Amino acid sequence: MSEQLLTILKFCVLALLYLFFFRVLRAVWVEVNPPKALERGGGGGGPVPASAPPAEGKRRKGRKVPTQLTVVEPADQRGRVFPLAPEMTVGRAAGCHVAIPEDTFASQIHARVYGRDGQTWVEDLGSTNGTFVNRAKVTAATAVRRGDLVQIGNTVMELG
Q1: One digit per residue, pLDDT tens: the chain, 160 residues?
Q2: Listed residue (97, 40, 94) closest to 68, CA to CA
Q3: What CA dihedral angle connects 5, 10, 16 and 19, to 10 degrees?
Q4: By CB neighbour count within 10 A (0-12 exposed, 13-18 middle, 19+ buried), where does 123 fall?
Q5: Where would I find the beta strands (DSSP E) of 40-130?
Q6: Per residue in 28-42, is it b (16+ CB within 10 Å) or e — as a string?
């Protein structure tokens, strides 16, 4: 091999090595510094009893706009209810509006549920195991309705 070709290969390997380190540092940075939406802490907060009435302004007859997330699986978490906020995150991190720390297959900040133009949307935030709506993998923001099942890790929640 010529010396020029070896020099080019060295630079390529060095560039790949730097790219790898950049990706690792970026992943660590995201885990250590959660998004600003989590630091504000507004919105859902925590689970509420299933008998609690829906939030004021969300009760509209004839509309299929969901007002809460109810855990369906796993069995030991069944019945946990989280009221929907205009924008909320779901994941294992304590700062998430819907915190599921017991689910080791969920990412720290796994997905985002938000409302736009009278519809509710689910978006995967680059999780390792993916987000599913009615058993279909979410690749972009997906509109959801009442009765749809959202799976994050091993946790399945129904929009109600």
Answers
A1: 789 999 999 999 999 999 999 988 888 877 776 555 444 444 444 444 444 434 444 444 445 667 788 888 888 888 888 888 888 888 888 888 888 888 888 888 888 888 888 888 888 888 888 889 988 888 888 888 888 899 988 889 988 8
A2: 97
A3: -130
A4: middle
A5: 68-73, 81-83, 87-91, 98-99, 111-116, 119-124
A6: eeeeeebeebbeeee
The alpha carbon dihedral of 80, 59, 158, 34 has a sign of: negative
Amino acid at 35: P
Instruction: Fill in the amino acid letter for 111.
Output: A
Nearest to 49 by CA among 88, 14, 79: 79
Give 48: exposed, middle or buried? Use CB within 10 Å, 0-12, 13-18, 19+.
middle
Phi, psi of 16 (to 5 degrees): -65, -40
- One-letter amino acid for residue 113 of the chain: V
pTM of the entire predicted model: 0.58
State which amino acid sits at residue 16.
Answer: L
